[in-house]
Specification:
Rossmann fold, 11% strand, binds adenosine-5'-triphosphate, binds magnesium ion
C-alpha cells in the first residue's frame, strides 16, 4: 500500500527546504483517478465525523502566493457536505483583531465537535509575514513558536486532530502562475502588485518557513511539505493524508439503546392536528 504520509516531517529534525522536492513524480492519470475515489472516501468519513459529533479536524494550508491554497481547497474538498465544513481565510488583521493577541481571531475559527475547519493561511502568518516585514520585533515573534505549539496541544487535548500542509513550489513555477494570472483576464483578479514585492523576499520567506516547519512540527500537529508544482500530485497526496487521518480517527455513527421495534408509521397523519384540506378549513 502507498505510504499516505511520505511528506510528513519528524519532530525535532532539522529541515532543509532547499533540498525538498517541489515537483512530485507519478502517473498523472492514475493520480487523478485515485483522487476521485479519495473524495468519495473523504465525504463518507466526514459524514461519520459529523454524525458522531465528538471529535473534529483542523486542516491548515500555508504557501507562497500562487502556491495553490485556493485550488487545493477547491479540488480536495469538492463534494463534501458544506454543513460539516468551514473555510476560514486569514488576511491582514482588522483594527479590532490587532487589539487582541494573535491567536484571538484564530481560536474563534477552530472546528466545533463534528466539524472540519480548513484554514487558508493561519496563525502561522504571525511568524512569517510579520517576521519578514518586521511588523513586530523578534522578541515578539520568536516566543510564538512555543505559544503556537501550546495552543495546538490544547486543541488536540480537546479532541481536534490537526494536519498542516506547506505547499512547496519553485520560484519558476510561481513565475509561470503569475504570468498566467496576468495573461488571462479571468485570472487578473488573483494578481496584485504586492505579490511581486513578496516574490523579491522569496529567500527571506523560505528561511521563515523553514524555521516554522522545524519549530512547530510536533507529534500531535505535524507539518507536511507537499511538492506542489504539479497540481495533480499535490491534490492526491493531500487527499490521501486527510483520508488516512480520518481512518485513524475512525468516527462512529451514534447508536441508541432505545427499542424502536413495534413503531409503525402510516402515510396519513393520525391524531393531533387536522388536515385543513379535508376539513374545508
Ligand atoms: P491569494 O493567494 O489567492 O492571493 P491570499 O491569501 O494571498 O490569496 P490576499 O488578500 O491576497 O489573499 O492576501 C492576504 C494577505 O494578508 C497576505 O499577504 C498575508 O500575508 C496577509 N496576512 C495574513 N495574516 C496576517 C497577519 N497576521 N499579519 C499581517 N499580514 C497578514
Ligand atoms: Mg494574495
Amino acid at each position: 500500500m502507498t505510504n499516505p504520509t511520505p511528506h510528513r516531517l519528524v519532530p525535532g529534525q532539522p529541515v532543509d527546504l532547499g533540498s525538498l522536492p517541489t515537483a512530485g513524480e507519478g502517473d498523472r492519470k492514475a493520480f487523478e483517478t485515485e483522487l476521485d475515489s479519495l473524495r468519495d472516501q473523504l465525504a463518507e468519513w466526514q459524514t461519520a465525523l459529523y454524525a458522531e459529533g465528538r471529535r473534529s479536524l483542523l486542516v491548515v494550508f500555508q504557501a507562497m502566493d500562487a502556491g495553490g491554497k485556493d485550488g487545493t481547497i477547491r479540488k480536495v474538498f469538492r463534494g463534501i457536505n458544506p454543513q460539516g465544513t468551514r473555510v476560514a481565510s486569514f488576511k491582514n488583521p482588522s483594527e479590532l483583531e490587532r487589539q487582541h493577541d494573535f491567536l484571538w481571531r484564530i481560536h474563534k475559527q477552530v472546528p466545533a465537535s463534528g466539524m472540519i475547519s480548513i484554514f487558508n493561511r493561519s496563525h502561522y502568518e504571525d511568524v512569517l509575514v510579520v517576521r519578514v516585514d518586521r511588523i513586530v520585533p523578534e522578541s515578539t515573534w520568536r516566543p510564538r513558536f512555543e505559544q503556537i505549539n501550546n495552543f495546538e496541544a490544547q486543541l488536540a487535548a480537546s479532541g481536534t486532530t490537526i494536519l498542516k500542509f506547506f505547499l512547496h513550489i519553485s520560484p519558476e513555477e510561481q513565475a509561470e502562475r503569475f504570468r498566467d494570472r496576468l495573461r488571462k483576464p479571468e485570472k487578473n483578479w488573483k494578481f496584485s502588485r504586492g505579490d511581486l514585492d513578496k516574490r523579491r523576499q522569496w529567500y527571506d520567506y523560505q528561511q521563515a518557513f523553514q524555521e516554522m516547519l522545524e519549530k512547530c512540527t510536533t507529534e500531535i500537529a505535524p507539518w507536511h511539505v507537499i511538492p506542489a508544482d504539479r497540481k495533480w500530485y499535490r491534490n492526491t497526496v493531500i487527499a490521501r493524508t486527510i483520508v488516512s487521518t480520518l481512518e485513524a480517527i475512525n468516527p462512529q455513527y451514534p447508536t441508541t439503546d432505545e427499542d424502536f421495534t413495534g413503531i409503525t408509521i402510516a402515510d396519513s397523519i393520525e391524531g393531533g392536528s387536522t388536515d385543513p384540506r379535508r376539513d374545508g378549513g
